[in-house]
Amino acid sequence: MLVTVDTSTPGFSTTVEALRLRSWQLGAGQPTLVTDLFSAEFFHLVVDDRADVHISSKDGRFYLGYFPLGRPGTEGDGWVLAVTGTATVPGYRVTFDTETPAEIVAAAVQHVLATARPR
């Protein structure tokens, strides 16, 4: 396979349309878009004395924490999503800051929930 590069015009080309300013979704939004994804049948929900919300699966392997004022001891963590690994596969942890739109957090949570399956 032969690959050629046009060196007559340095840099990259684009269009005026591609360079236009865009409006991006900003602001924390409504946390209920995330918390309403969980049912009491499969998850525990606890609201603590700081009004932080903690949701865990009944098997204890899934955790979601919502910290409207920021998670204590962190630099503005607003959401923590964690899944415990197994003996052979490590788990993971994802954080979103307090200003991450709830719709984005909800999309991540929905994907994690959609890929969960009974053992």
Question: What's this model, at a glance?
Answer:
Helix content is 18%, strand content 24%. It has 119 residues and is α+β, with helices and mostly antiparallel strands.
Plain-language structure description:
The model has no long low-confidence stretch (mean pLDDT 90). The protein starts with 15 loop residues before the first helix and ends with a helix. It is an alpha+beta fold and 119 residues long. The protein has three helices and five strands; from the N terminus they run ααβββββα.
Which structural class do you get from the secondary structure elements?
alpha+beta
Low-pLDDT regions: none
Query: What overall form do the CA principal axes indicate?
Result: extended
Beta strands, count: 5
Number of alpha- plus pi-helical segments: 3
What's the assembly state of these chains?
A: single chain
Give the fraction of residues assigned to helices: 10-25%
Largest sheet: number of strands, sense, barrel closure:
5 strands, antiparallel
Distance between the termini: 47 Å
* Secondary-structure element order, N to C: HHEEEEEH
Strand order of the largest sheet: 1-2-3-4-5
Q: What is the gyration radius calculated from CA atoms? A: 21 Å
Strand content: 15-25%
Mean pLDDT: 90
